[in-house]
Design a protein that fits this description.
The structure is a homodimer. By secondary structure, chain A is α/β, with parallel strands linked by helices. Chain A has three domains: 4-50, Up-down Bundle (Transferase, Pyrimidine Nucleoside Phosphorylase, Chain A, domain 3); 80-157 and 176-324, 3-Layer(aba) Sandwich (Pyrimidine Nucleoside Phosphorylase, Chain A, domain 2); 331-420, Aldehyde Oxidoreductase, domain 3, CATH 3.90.1170.30. Chain A has helices spanning 4-12, 19-30, 36-49, 53-64, 92-102, 121-126, 137-147, 160-170, 178-191, 212-228, 250-261, 268-284, 290-302, 305-316, 352-362, 406-416; strands at residues 80-84, 107-111, 149-153, 196-203, 232-239, 247-248, 335-340, 345-350, 378-381, 388-389, 394-400, 417-420, 430-434. In chain A, strands 1-4-5-13 form a four-stranded mixed beta sheet, with helices on both faces. In chain A, helix 10 links the parallel strand 4 (196-203) and strand 5. Chain A is globular. The interface between A and B is medium-sized, with 22 and 22 residues.
Chain lengths: 435, 435
């Protein structure tokens, strides 16, 4: 019989927890046998003394095993998953998953909702009239078989350990620990059952890991977990010093993603999407080289086959696929308000997190999980870092229904976007690949 | 409005908590507004990052203020308290308090019960037929006025913060931290209202702080708290490498203390008692030098005036003072069992904690707070460190009623007392004085 206080003692003296001890922790905590006050003492000891890669992996495995583990074996071929650590105007899933599917990869993805300054893929998809994300497992598998992709909400029984632990970490100052973040993300990826995972770790003013070194360390920790679990795993560290796309807001982001899949729009969102999709295709099809994968992805874009796959999924998930031809079928805000530059110069710095908060203030996001969102509203970014700007020129267009948060959003937006007399250095879009 | 998670964040980054923050912690925790899981996260952060002397003092003050603070102003003269960190055969209070009272000091002492391997003064006193420790505050003050001393149980409302925190620390691996130990002890001393405090910090195999350096650090931390609070405070670091007296067990310890107060018995227990009593008298009577205090204490012993004070208290607290003349009135065990040496040599090492556990197995102590004790049983130590011993010679005499734990106690006793061919180095009795 293990005594939990002995595990606390061990970690407080910077000892190494064994597989058995970490499983005992997770199983006991989920079962309610280990009380919150003991779990939080261990979490703080972990925060202060750290965990090595082996401990981090074993914690992740124990968490992944705490609930349902999805069996995707009924889907032929390699299943590839992706995960982004979250940001603003990060609409990559809506572009990447159809492109990968068009190249023959299978993307059976469980996504999350937006919270705080970050958006969520489920919310974006739900802005498509009729689209449902609460699809049962059998139908989910069938849709992936048919379309090559499906994106649904996490089932309630996927990694219950993470739900319970995250809530405790949130109120005990133990969120910001590399091993705990990595195990939280990767436990869900392991439980979701894909053969390979591409991770998009964001860095910059809109990311959880603002510093690129921290982002890279997180990427390494997650790739290490993936490898230990026998999953092919690769991570890109990508820039979130500004909103990735132009649109910040749910239906607006769907529209932008569709325009990209139609080949009507280029830019950073497309570039990051192509990079992620190429890596996913490369892992899904071991018989081809990665350069070949990149060519296939570009061809899936130019041929319109990616768009076809998106249409297939939308229809299969009860959405109206006509939104792809007629954007007027997407929810539209009652009015637009243009936010104009107050000075001449170049866009030198964007507090991306604040841009996310501005969209939230317009109704596009959630402060807390139970808030409802307005799918129509959001912000269209007219300028990107390094763009020249003149006084009075539009910086952004706000799409507005409820004007309650408008004034605060405008004020905060203007503070968040800085101009300078000289052209600034533009950060790299893709900092690093961790394999 | 303070957010508790910010205090956790501060301490986790090794920041310094302010008086206000520590008071917010203690008040909020006692009121049930701060949940256990947040308190335990802070305690672990304190364990790992420490607290400086100012924080330790402010924590202590906040804890002391969490319940009743005893007002001893109705007692004329200086009130001096003592505290021992606990050990085996540590019967000093029964000797020291009467001697100090005989010298004119006022000892209004709240004591505790035994737990685990350590004995408790309340249990010892209760072995005197009729003796009551649950005396009301007014009567307590009256007894001190009349006899110069009274020893009672802590009231339930003395430092509720310590009761609640200690229970949490016990199950979260956060007991063994210098600041937390010091604040736990000193908060009760501050709340108990004495003008001056003498601390007896034990070190060695029967002490909580086995290492003399740790014991000295604890002594310094407690003296620092005492000084900051305006109490004259002094600490002795004394040896607990072997049971301090010969008797381990409640009535047996009362008998030994009485014999010492009668001048019939010398040894380490007497020597430590004299040292403690001299310092208490010195603080109680600032008009005299400490050398003079020591002389007065010795004279209180030889004149029998100490014994008279003990008789006064026993009678006032409903006990039968005739036990002082007739030890047959104390509870007596049904049988004695002699434990004999298995080898020739010198007593080289005693695992004192184990001796305490052996007495507990005979029924003299408590494994958990709700256990009842047998006042009659215990162990009489025939040998001390460095004593020569021959095979078959008595090492100890067990006083036994219930024989259930006897065999285990004998076995463990023989393992706990080691002999060696050569005479060992005997540790100092009083290592250090911290003022």
């Amino acid at each position: 019989m293990m005594r939990f206080v002995e595990l606390i003692e061990k970690k407080k003296h910077a000892g190494k927890l064994s597989r058995q001890e970490l499983a005992y922790f997770i199983n006991g905590y989920v079962a309610g046998e280990i009380p919150d006050y003991q779990a939080s003492a261990l979490l703080m000891a972990i925060w202060l003394n750290g965990m090595d890669p082996e401990e981090t992996y074993e914690l992740t495995v124990a968490m992944a095993a705490s609930g349902d583990q999805i069996d995707l074996s009924a889907i032929p071929g390699r299943k590839v998953d992706k995960h982004s650590t979250g940001g603003v105007a990060d609409t990559t899933t809506l572009i990447v998953a159809p492109l990968v599917a068009a190249c023959g990869g299978k993307v059976a993805k469980m996504s999350g909702r937006g919270l705080g300054h970050t958006g969520g893929t489920l919310d974006k998809l739900e802005s498509i009239p009729g689209f449902r994300v609460d699809i049962g497992m059998n139908e989910f598998v069938d849709i992936v078989k048919k379309c090559g992709l499906s994106v649904i909400g996490q089932t309630g029984s996927l990694v219950p350990a993470d739900k319970k632990l995250y809530a405790l970490r949130d109120v005990t100052g133990t969120i910001d620990n590399l091993s705990l973040i990595a195990s939280s993300i990767m436990s869900k990826k392991l439980a979701a059952g894909a053969d390979a995972v591409v991770l998009d770790v964001k860095t910059g003013s809109g990311a959880f890991m603002r510093d690129v070194k921290d982002a890279e360390a997180l990427a390494r920790a997650m790739v290490d977990i993936g490898k230990r679990s026998g999953r092919r795993t690769v991570a890109l560290v990508t820039d979130m010093s500004q909103p990735l796309g132009r649109a910040v807001g749910n239906a607006m982001e769907v529209k932008e993603a569709v325009e990209i899949l139609k080949g009507e729009r280029a830019g950073d969102l497309l570039d990051v999407s192509l990079a992620l999709a190429a890596r996913m295709v490369c892992m899904a099809k071991p018989e081809i080289e990665c350069e070949q994968a990149e060519k296939e992805v570009r061809s899936a874009l130019s041929s319109g086959k990616g768009l076809e796959r998106l249409a297939c999924m939308i229809e299969a998930q009860r959405g109206n696929p006509k939104v792809l031809e007629n954007e007027g079928l997407l929810p539209k805000a009652a009015q637009t308000v243009t936010v104009k530059a107050k000075t001449d110069g170049f866009i030198s710095c964007i507090d991306t997190r604040e841009i996310g908060i501005c969209a939230l203030l317009l109704g596009a996001g959630r402060q807390k999980k139970t808030d409802t969102i307005d799918p129509a509203v959001g912000i269209w970014m007219e300028k990107r870092l390094g763009d020249p700007v003149k006084t009075g020129e539009p910086l952004a267009v706000f799409h507005v229904n409820n004007t309650g948060g408008l004034e605060e959003a405008k004020m905060r937006f203007l503070s968040a976007v800085k101009t300078a007399p000289g052209k600034p250095r533009i950060p790299a879009l893709i900092y690093r690949e961790v394999t």
